[in-house]
Write a structure and sequence with these properties.
The chain is mostly beta strands. It is about 0% helix and about 50% strand. The protein has no helices and eleven strands. The chain has strands spanning about 1-5, 10-15, 20-25, 35-40, 45-50, 60, 70-75, 80-85, 95-100, 115, 120-125. Strands 2, 4, 5, 6, 9, 10 and 11 form a seven-stranded mixed β-sheet that branches. The chain has a four-stranded antiparallel β-sheet with strand order 1-3-8-7, with no helix packed on it. It is globular and about 40 Å long. The N and C termini lie far apart (about 40 Å). The mean pLDDT is about 95.
């Protein structure tokens, strides 16, 4: 099992920034590709960003956040981050940290590739 706990959500004005953190415990964190997803009210959960296992040299982003969001990881701290800049009201959602379904797996860019979920943290962007 991999346990994931998100933090860093909150209310911010449009154009502002937030950094989400996700602390992992359980299995060897560095062996898992990690991702962030989000879910707005009445919508399906959607992919935001993903980072490869170990060095995190490979990343992937949804088109809607490219150039504004950055995913990173610190294996020594068992933590993955999502730095968000230039936030828009349409970024409002519950943000979920996620781990791939198996060690040394591909970037998890779909909910079907996810093995473990965090409980979510609310991000609200006011206009």
């Amino acid at each position: 099992q991999v346990q994931l706990v998100e933090s860093g959500g909150g209310l911010v004005q449009a154009g502002g920034s937030l950094r989400l953190s996700c602390l992992a415990s359980g299995r060897t964190f560095s062996n898992y590709a990690m991702a962030w997803f989000r879910q707005a009210p009445g919508k399906e959960r959607e992919f935001v960003a993903a980072i490869a296992w170990k060095s995190g040299s490979s990343t992937s982003y949804a088109d809607s956040v490219k150039g504004r969001f950055t995913i990173s990881r610190d294996n020594a701290k068992n933590t993955v981050y999502l730095q968000m800049h230039s936030l828009k009201p349409e970024d409002t959602a519950v943000y979920y940290c996620a781990a791939g379904g198996r060690p040394f797996g591909a970037l998890p860019t779909s909910t079907t590739n996810i093995g473990f979920w965090g409980q979510g943290t609310q991000v609200s962007v006011s206009s």
